[in-house]
Structure formats: C-alpha cells, structure tokens
Amino acid sequence: MDSALSGFFLKPNYSSLFSLFYALLPFKNMKLICIGRNYTDHINELANERPEEPVVFIKPDSAILPMEQDFYIPEFSNDVHYEVEVLVKIKKVGKHIDKKFAHTYYDEVGLGIDFTARDLQSKLKEKGLPWEKAKGFDGAAVIGKWLPKTDFKDINDLNFSLLKNGQEVQTGNTKLMLWEIDEIVSYVSRFFTLKKGDIIFTGTPSGVGRIATNDYLSGVLEGQEFFHVKVK
Ligand code: ZN
Q1: 145 alpha carbon to ligand 1 midpoint, in Å?
Q2: Which residue segments constitute the domains of the chain, with CATH numbers given?
Q3: Contacts for 89 with CB less than 8 Å, ≥ 6 apart
Q4: pTM of the model
C-alpha cells in the first residue's frame, strides 16, 4: 500500500481508537471549569460590568494543590488573592445539558480557593489577553473535602466563608449567585463536554484579598471546615 492510501485507511481508525481510549478513561484529563463574577457584590468590588452571560475560564489539572500541602506564592506575583468558592464535581459525561436535568450530573459539593495572581491578571486584562497565567499556575486551585449534596437541604442556600488567620474575610451564600449551579452546569456544557471528575468553581463573593507568607487560610461550608492551607 502506498503512503497516501495507508494514510486514508489508518487515520480514521487511529483517531476513533484514540477517542475510544479517552472515553474509557473518564478520570484522566479532568478539567477545572471556573465561573467569574457570579456574585453582585464581587462585581462592584472589582468595578466590573455585570455580564450578560457567565464569565468562564479553565484551569488545568496541574493547578490543583495536593491535599495538605502548603501553598507557595509564585515568584511572578506580588499580589496573589484568595477567592473562596463552592465546588461541584461532575459524575457523568454530558453535553448540551438542559437546566432541568443539570442536577443529575453532580452529586458532590465541596469548597475551594481560586488563587489569582491579581497583578498579572490586571496586566493581561488591560491588554485584552487571556488570564490563564494568572489563574492556572501550579497550586492555584485548592480543593477541599467532598460531601454528598444530599447532606444539604438546599444547594441554592449554602452559607460559606473563608477565614484568614482565624478572622473571617469572606462570607457568601449560594442564593446570591447571578447564575445558580444548575444554570452554570447547563451553560458550560454548551461549550465543553463535561466528563466524570471535572470540577466546577462557581465564583467568589466579595472580600477577596491579598495573601502573605505565613497566612493560614481555612474554608467553612455550612459550619464544617472543608479545607485549610498554609501560605509559604
Ligand atoms: Zn474565582
């Protein structure tokens, strides 16, 4: 067989095998899908405009701070901010999910931090460039423990907060979201196929602020600590 013909026969087979391979590995290549500006007061705080659609960005899986590890402020930033956020974990593959079925795509709720190199993000925003370097760097995603959503009366009424060195610096409630969790799941699935193990960061309320070496951060959801992290 000449090379043109072998290309014709082998290429489609190769790519479909490749897709099959990934379809069978739902835990590999998970992604973090993050929502920006999802609480009114946080929009005012950063002087952003209320968007017509959710602001969506992705962090790579390498951004996940391993459990119980300290967070090291990266050398490229002097202004890393904490953003405490409610998380949901996707439990099955989905695309173009209707809002009324969105709740069947996740059954665990968590809490985490979307660390943001604010100085770098501002520079990138000014130039109209993507934020990835400011949001997706190593360690920029703190993910705490998970609980079944059935442990909570109403996921659209969850109180959560972030404590810095024992002082409450952020408080929020999921009922104050501009886009509630089911709307987010539905919306992002129009663009990205959701896969088992993907995690959605649902946005942060007001009170974001800078961290410094030796800070101790802890996140509380409905009265329970979900994570703690030391800053180095
Ligand atoms: Zn955020």
Answers
A1: 18
A2: 29-230 (3.90.850.10)
A3: 106, 107, 108, 110, 146, 197, 198, 199, 200
A4: 0.86
